[in-house]
Design goal:
The protein is of the alpha+beta class. The chain has 15 helices and 23 strands.
Length: about 550
C-alpha cells in the first residue's frame, strides 16, 4: 500500500473559439507564453502525449498493490467513481439502490460496455473480478467491504447485487478505489482462476508495451465513454525531479506532476510560476494529503513523554514552513486530514507559542539553560530523513532543528538513503520522522488503519499506535453502519490524537502539475490517483 494521498482552487482552463482559427491560435499562444505559430495549436487526434514518471509502471495486475495507481486507472474502471470532495459518481454502474436496512446494494450496470478485447461487460464479468478480493482476510482492515460482503449475485446481465452481513458506511467509497476493486476481462484470467498477465479492462486506454523504462498505451477504439482526443500516451521513466523538469522544458516530454507519478519540487513550481515564456504551464489545486512530523511512542524514546510532544507542537510555525519550505504551495495544517477528504477536519494551524512550549517542558521537569535535561538525561532527539524519497525533507528538518533549539531541545538530523529509511521507520529506529497521509479516496480510513491501527501490518511504519486506547476507537469508526455514526466515531479518533499530541500536522501540500506547449485544456482530476487526461488535447506533429 502506498503512503501517502483532491480538489483545488485556482484551476486553469483554456477555452478556444471554434469560429476563427486565427483568433484561437492567437489566444492559445498568449496563454502558453508564446509557443510557436497558429498551426501548432491545431488538435492532432493522432498525437502522442509523453509523460514523465518517477518509476516504472510495474505490474498492472488490478488486484495487486504493485503498479502505479494512475496507470491502472487508465486501463481499469470502477463501479462508482470518487469525484470532487469524495462525492460518489456513476461509472460502470449507472445507478444503484440501497435497502432500508443498509445490507443490500443493487447496482444497475451500464449497457453497451465492452472490455478492450471485445468481451461484454456484464454482472457475471463483474462478479468474477469481485470474487478476487471479497473475503480476502488480508484486506479486512483496509478495504472493509471485503469482510462484510456475504454474497455477490449476478441477478441478470446488467444487475449486480452485494449482500452484506451488516450495514457498513464505506461500501461505495471502497468500490471507488483504484485497487484491488477494479474489473479485468474474464478472458484475461488464467487457467488457475487468477490474473493471467494481460491487463485488459474497460477503460479508455490499452497497454501496447510495458517495460522498466517506458510504458506505452494506445486509445481504446471501442471505449464506451468520451474517447481521448489523442492516440497514444508514452510514459517515460525519469526518476529525478530536476531531470523531469528539464525534459519538459526541452520538449522531450509534455507533462509532469502528481503525488504518485512525477512529483514536482516547490522550488521548481515557483520557477515556473515566476518565469514566463517557453510555453510551460503550471497547474495547481488543493491536495488531499497532509505532511506530518511523527514521533516514536516507544517507552525507550524521549518522544514517549507527552510534554515533549506537546512542546514541539506548540513551538513549530506551520505557516513559516508552508512559506519557506513549500514556497506557498501548501497550507499550514492543523489536523490529520484536510477538508478535501470526506470527514476531514481541515483545521487552521495554530500560531507558534515558544513561551508556552518552554512552560510545558519546565513543568514536566525538563530544565536548564541551552539543552534542557531531566534526571541527568539531556533532551536530545534525532530526526530521520531520506531526501531520496522525500525531496526537500532535509531543509524541513533544518527548520525544525532551528526552532526546537530555541526551546531547549537539541535535534540531530540523521540523513539516510531510501533503502535505509524503508527499513528504519517500520523498525522504529528514530525519534522523529516525516510522514504523509495517503489521501483521497483512500482516506480517512486508509491512513487511520494503515498508519495507526496496531493490528494491521504496514511496510511504511506507523505514525502512532496505542493498542489499548486508540485501536478500539479506530475499529469502531471502521465498522460504523451509517454516515452520521461514522462521522461521530471519526471525531472521537481525531480528538484522541489531538489530546495526546500523537504527531504534528505540518502542511496540506498542493497538487502540482506542469504541461508543455503541446498540451491544451489541462484540468486536474479529483485526486492524484488519476492522470489529468480528461478533455486534454495535443497539438503539433
Amino acid at each position: 500500500m502506498a503512503r501517502n494521498p483532491a480538489q483545488r482552487a485556482g484551476r486553469h482552463r483554456v477555452r478556444r473559439a471554434a469560429l476563427m482559427l486565427s483568433a484561437a491560435a492567437l489566444f492559445a499562444t498568449a496563454a502558453c507564453g508564446g509557443s510557436g505559430s497558429g498551426a501548432s495549436d491545431v488538435k492532432n487526434p493522432n498525437g502522442v502525449l509523453t509523460v514523465g514518471i518517477n518509476r516504472a509502471a510495474d505490474d498492472l495486475n488490478p488486484f495487486a498493490f504493485k503498479g502505479i495507481f494512475d496507470v491502472q486507472s487508465m486501463i481499469f474502471e470502477p463501479l462508482v467513481a470518487s469525484g470532487e470532495n469524495g462525492k460518489i459518481l456513476p461509472a460502470l454502474a449507472e445507478s444503484w439502490d440501497t435497502s432500508a436496512d443498509g445490507k443490500t446494494y443493487t447496482f444497475h450496470l451500464r449497457p453497451g460496455v465492452k472490455f478492450s478485447d471485445g468481451t461484454p461487460w456484464t454482472a457475471e464479468a463483474a462478479k468474477k473480478s469481485l470474487d478476487m478480493w471479497i473475503g480476502d482476510a488480508n484486506l479486512k482492515d483496509f478495504v472493509v467491504t471485503s469482510a462484510v460482503v456475504s454474497a455477490v449475485t449476478a441477478t441478470d446481465d446488467l444487475t449486480l447485487t452485494l449482500s452484506l452481513s451488516k450495514p457498513y458506511a464505506y461500501v461505495l467509497r471502497d468500490l471507488s478505489l483504484v485497487r484491488p476493486v477494479r474489473f479485468l476481462s474474464p478472458k484475461a484470467f488464467g487457467a488457475d482462476g487468477k490474473y493471467g498477465g494481460q491487463p485488459i479492462g474497460t477503460g479508455p486506454w490499452v497497454v501496447k508495451s510495458n517495460g522498466p523504462t517506458e510504458t506505452v498505451l494506445t486509445r481504446n477504439p471501442g471505449y464506451w465513454g468520451t474517447a481521448p482526443e489523442f492516440a497514444e500516451v508514452d510514459l517515460k521513466v525519469i526518476p529525478d525531479a530536476k531531470t523531469r523538469l528539464t525534459a519538459l522544458r526541452s520538449g522531450d516530454i509534455d507533462l509532469i506532476g502528481g503525488d504518485w507519478t512525477g512529483p514536482m519540487l516547490p522550488e521548481d513550481a515557483q520557477e515556473l510560476k515566476n518565469r514566463s515564456g517557453g510555453g510551460v504551464k503550471l497547474t495547481t489545486a488543493p491536495g488531499t494529503t497532509t505532511q506530518l512530523l511523527g514521533f516514536n511512542p516507544a517507552p525507550s524514546r524521549l518522544t514517549s513523554d507527552p510534554a515533549v510532544r506537546k512542546a514541539i507542537s506548540l513551538a513549530l510555525d506551520r505557516k513559516a514552513i508552508a512559506q519557506n519550505r513549500n514556497l506557498g504551495f501548501a497550507e499550514p495544517a492543523g489536523s490529520l486530514m484536510p477538508s478535501t477528504v470526506p470527514t476531514g477536519e481541515g483545521k487552521t494551524a495554530p500560531p507558534p507559542d515558544l513561551n508556552a512550549a518552554k512552560q510545558v517542558l519546565q513543568a514536566a521537569g525538563w530544565t536548564g539553560d541551552g539543552t534542557r535535561s531531566k534526571n541527568g538525561v539531556p533532551l536530545k532527539l534525532e530526526i530521520l530523513v531520506a531526501e531520496e524519497n522525500q525531496p526537500g525533507v532535509r531543509q524541513l528538518a533544518e527548520i525544525i532543528q532551528a526552532t526546537l533549539k530555541d526551546i531547549g531541545i537539541q535535534v540531530q538530523i540523521d540523513a539516510v538513503d531510501h533503502a535505509t529509511s524503508h527499513d528504519a521507520v517500520p523498525a522504529g529506529q528514530y525519534d522523529m520522522t516525516i510522514f504523509y497521509t495517503i489521501g483521497a479516496p483512500y482516506d480517512p480510513l486508509g491512513t487511520l488503519t494503515n498508519s495507526f491501527l496496531s493490528t494491521l501490518e504496514s511496510t511504511d511504519g506507523k505514525i502512532w499506535t496505542d493498542p489499548a486506547r486508540l485501536d478500539p476507537l479506530i475499529e469502531k469508526a471502521v465498522a460504523a453502519p451509517s454516515e452520521p455514526e461514522r462521522d461521530a466515531d471519526l471525531s472521537g479518533v481525531y480528538r484522541f490524537l489531538d489530546d495526546n499530541s500523537a504527531f504534528v500536522p505540518l502542511v496540506y501540500p498542493q497538487r502540482l502539475w506542469a504541461a508543455g506547449p503541446r498540451v491544451h485544456n489541462l484540468t486536474l482530476a479529483p485526486t492524484d490517483y488519476d492522470f489529468p487526461l480528461a478533455g486534454v488535447w495535443v497539438s503539433g506533429d
